[in-house]
## 1
Amino acid sequence: MNAPTGSIASYNFAYLDEQTKRMIRRAILKAIAIPGYQVPFASREMPMPYGWGTGGVQVTAAIIGPHDVLKVIDQGADDTTNAVSIRAFFQKVANVAVTTRTDEATIIQTRHRIPEQPLKAGQTLVYQVPIPEPLRFLEPRETETRKMHALEEYGLMHVKLYEDIATHGRIATTYAYPVKVEGRYVMDPSPTPKFDNPKMHMSPALQLFGAGREKRIYALPPFTRVESLDFDDHPFTVQTFDKPCALCGAEGVYLDEVILDDRGGHMFVCSDTDHCESRQGDGHRGQQEGTFR
Amino acid sequence: MNAQMVALEGGFPDPVFDAQATFRAVMNAMAELGTRQPVHATATPPAPLSPTAGALALTLCDQDTCIWLEASLTSEAVIAWLRYQTGATIVDNPAQAQFAFVADASSMPRLDAFAEGSQDYPDRSTTLVLIVDALDSGEPLLLEGPGIERRSSLAPTALPGDFRSQWRDNGVRFPRGVDLVFAARHEIACLPRTTRILEPAEA
C-alpha cells in the first residue's frame, strides 16, 4: 500500500480475504477438471461495479502471487480505461510487476480479445465474462439451461445458427461465437471476436473465465480441443480484412476501425496495441504510419 | 504432547503466500496433465498426514468443506490438527466429502464410494488426496487427455490394486467423477477426471 507499513490497516494481499480465495481456488480446480463446465462460485462485491471485470479480477486475485507479471488488456489494448484501472488495482493491492508485453506476462487478464502473439506454456489467460451461459438468449431459465448442459442437449444452438443462415445466407454471429469443448460442453468464449476462436484450440496456455455478476467460473486446460460450432456446408470461418494495419502493416490480425474526420475518413489499425507497437519497433510500417506524429 | 497441543503447531509459517504458492502448484498440476509440480511450503502436520498433504489441506479446506479420512489417518492428533488449522468438518461418509485424504491406498474404498457430483452439478464431487512415497517409482501410467499435447506418464507408488479399472469406470461417468491429487515428498501431480490411462497394449 502507499501508506507506511503499520500506520493504518491495509488490505490483504491481492485484496480478497483468504477464505474467499480458497472458495475461488476450489472452483478453479473443478473448472479445470471439467473443461467448459460453468462452476458456480460465491462472487464477492469488488471495488468496481459488476460489468467492469469483477469476475476476471476475482480469478486473477485468487491465483496471483508476488512473482507474477501481470498484463491487462481491454479489447486488445493495454491503454484503455478498464485495462489501466485493473492494472493499477493489482499494482496497489498485490504490488506485482506489470507489463504490456505479451511474452513477458505470466498472467494476462483480458476483456474480449486474445493477444495476437501465440501464448506459451506456463502463461494463464484470465477472461472477463459478462454472460457465461451460451444458451441464455435462447432459454432464459437457469434451471432449463442447466438441464440442457447435463443432457448434452444443444440442438437449440444449432437451430439458432441455422436461422442465421436462413435469414442472412451465412452464420451472422461474429462475437461470443459458441464453441464445443472436448466434444462435450458448449461454452461461451466471452464476447471475443470469432477471429480469436481458433486461438483457444489446443492452446499451450491455461485459460480461465470469470463472470462476477453471474457468479460462474469455467476453464480450458492447456491443449484442450475447442471447436467452433458450424455445419458441413457452412463451415466456420474467421473475419478477414481487405487492408493491412495502417500503422504497422500487419496482415492476418484483428483490426479496429478508427474514424479520422467527419467526411468519412477512417483507417484500420491493430486491436492488439502491444502487437502493433512491437512490430513498429521492429521497423514495420503501414500506409498511414507517421500521419499522426 | 497431547493432541490439543499438537493441533496448535505446524500451520503455514506465512499463510497467505504459502497458500498461494501451494495453490498454484495444484492448479498447474491439475491443468498440465502428468507434470510434477514442486510444493515448497512447510506445513508440519502430525504423521501419518504428510507435510505435502497437510499443505494441501491448509490451502483448500476451511469451514465450508467436509473432509473424509482414510482409516490410518483417523488418529486423534490428525483430526485435531485438521479441525484447528482448517476449521473443516470431518465426516464418516466418503460421499459427503469435498476432500478425502488417503495414506494407505490398500484400505480405501472404491472410487465410486466418493461424491461424484450430479449430472447437473458435476463440480460437487470429491477431490482425493493420495499420499504417496514418490511419483516415479511405481507402476508407470501412460496418460492422455486435456492438459497434455500428446501423452505423458506418471508412476505414483502404492495405488489400489485394480486402479486402472476403477479409473476407467470413473471416466465413464463423465462429467461426474472424482479428481485425484498425488501428494509425494515436496511435489504433487494430478489426475483430473478427464484423464485417460492407456493400457500397456495401446502404448
## 2
Amino acid sequence: MSLMQLTSSPVGSLVRFIVIFALWYRTMALAKLPPNASSVPAVLAFGDSIVDPGNNNNIKTLIKCNFPPYGKDFQGGNPTGRFCNGKIPSDLIAEQLGIKEYLPAYLDPNLKSSDLVTGVCFASGASGYDPLTPKITSVLSLSTQLDMFREYIGKLKGIVGESRTNYILSNSLYLVVAGSDDIANTYFVAHARILQYDIPSYTDLMVNSASNFVKELYNLGARRVAVLGAPPIGCVPSQRTLAGGLTRKCSEKYNYAARLFNSKLSKELDSLGHNLSDTRIVYIDVYTPLLDIIENYQKYGYKVMDRGCCGTGKLEVAVLCNPLDATCSNASEYVFWDSYHPTEGVYRKLVNYVLEKYIDRLF
Amino acid sequence: MRLVLRRNQQSAIRSERDMEGIEGNSSRYSLKPSRICNEDVLICVDVDPQCLVEMKGATGPNGRPLTRLDSIKQAIVLFVNAKLTINPEHRFAFATLSNTLVSWVRKEFSSEIESTLAAMRVLSASSSSSTTAGQPDLTHLFRLAAHEAKKSRLQGRILRVILFYCRSSERPKHQWPVNQKLFTLDVMYLHDKPGPDNCPQEVYDTLVEALEHVSEYEGYILESGQGLARVLFRHVLILLSHPQQRCIQEYVDIPKSIAKKPPQVEPMATEDSAPISSQ
C-alpha cells in the first residue's frame, strides 16, 4: 500500500526517478535491473571458495590464499584471501546491484559497522553441503556459517534497531554457493563417502543438506535466496589432471555427479519456493554457461582453457599457488586463474548472464 | 600348570571387578598421556645436476619445463605450510648437499613461511664444472645435524633431517658411530627409471641403511621414479607425520585401499595412486 502510494503520486515518481538516476549514475549496468532490484539493501553470501573473500585467512587450514599472486588484479594487487586474480562473484553481484564495490568477509578484522548494514560474506573455501567436506579441510561448515549469521543478526540489531534489521533481512539477496568440493574433494579425491553412497545417493545427501540450509535461512528471515548449482567440476584443471586420464579431458563421472545434483537441487528448490510463503528461492544454473565458456573458450576471447594462470596451472591451488611460482603475464587470456577457480573475467561474464536471466524471478 | 591357571584366574577376577564398577563398558582402552616435542626440521636438498631433470608433462606459464628442483621447492613449501598449520611452533632450516660438502642455505631455524620462500628463491643447482666426480658424503650432514640436535634438545625439541636425494646411480657414503642417535632422518628419493645405465635400487638400499643407522625414531624413506610432481607432493605429505607418533613404515597404508565396493558403484577408472615403498 505504501509502495503503491509512492509510485502513484507525482512526488513519489520523482523521488523514485531520482533514486534510480543516482544509482544509474554510479553503475551503468544497473540500468538493466527492474525497479525492485534497485532497492536491495544488502547481499549476504554463504558457501565455499567461489565466494570466500578471506574468511579462511585466520583459521588453521591450508585452504587460504592471502598471499601473492592471488589478488594480482584486485585493488592494485591486494591478496585479501579471495581465490581469484580479481573480484569474485559476490563482489560482482554487489557491484551490479549498486550496493557496494566489494562484499567483505564477516571475519575480516577490519570490518566496520557500515559494512554490516550492506552485507557481508560468511563463505569458507573448501566448505560444502556434506558436513564431512569442511572437516576434511578444517574449514567453516555451513552450520558454522549459520551461527555466524545469527551472530551477525544480533550485531545488526545493535546498529540499526530491530525494525530496520527485519527489513534488511527480508529484502536482501542471499547467495548460496556450494557443492563443488563435496563432489571433487570428498567423494572422488578423498573417497570419503564412496563405501556408503553411490553417486545418486550421495547427491541426495547433498540436496537434503542444501534444502535444510535454505529452510534455516528462511527461518532467520531470508526471503530472496539464490542457490547456485554445481559447476562442471570435472573440467577444472586440477580435476583434469587427477581424473581426466592421459589427455586430461574433463572427467565425465565428476560432471555426471554435478548434473545429477543440479537436477535434484532445482526440483527441491522449486518445491521449497512453493511451500514457504512470501519467498523467492531460485536455482541458478552455472553449469551450462561455464561449460559453454570452457568448450568455446576462443569464441569468448580466451586463449587457454585447460590450465590455470598460476604455476603449471595443472595442479596449483591455495598454498601451492604462491610467490615462488611464475604466473602468466595476462590473466584475461585464461579461463582459470588457478587449477580450481575461474578468472575475474569469466566470473564477470557468468554474473552478467545470471543477473540477466534470473533477476526477475528474485525480485 | 598350577601357576598358569592361577594367573589366568587372577586376570579373570580383576576383569570382573572392573566390570562391576562400570556398567555398559565391556572394554576399556586408554592412551597414556605423553609429551610430543616441537620439531626442528633441517631440510637438505641434493643439488647435483640431476636435480635439473625435467618432470613429466609439466611446464610453467612461461613455457619453461618444470625441473625436479622446481618440484622439490614446491613440495617443501607445501610441507612447511602444512606443518605450521598443524603446529606453528615447528621450525625449519635449509641446506644443500653437493659432492664435496653440505652448505647452509638458511642456518637459523625459523617458524615463518616467508623464511622458507626466501630460502627456496636462492636455492639452485650446483654447476657441473665445479663438481668433482665421486660419491657424496653424508657424514658432514650427519655432523651438522648432530650439532644442531644437541641445541634442540636443550630446548626440549627434537631434530629431524629430511634429505631430498636426486641421483640415480651414485650411492652416498657415510661413517657414523652406531650408538649415536641424536636425530631422525627421512629421505625423499627422486630418480630416473631403472635402466642399463643406472641402478636406483642400490642407491635406495644404501639410503635405507644410512637411515636405519642414524635415526632416533622411525625414519621414513619414500621414492619415486615417475617424474610426476603430484606424486612427490603426496609423498611429502606422508612425511608430515611426527617422528614420535609414527608406526613403522611398512604399516603405513596411505592412501587406504577401498577394500570392498558396493556392487552398484560404477567401475571406476584406476586413478593414479603412488605405491608406498616398503623397507
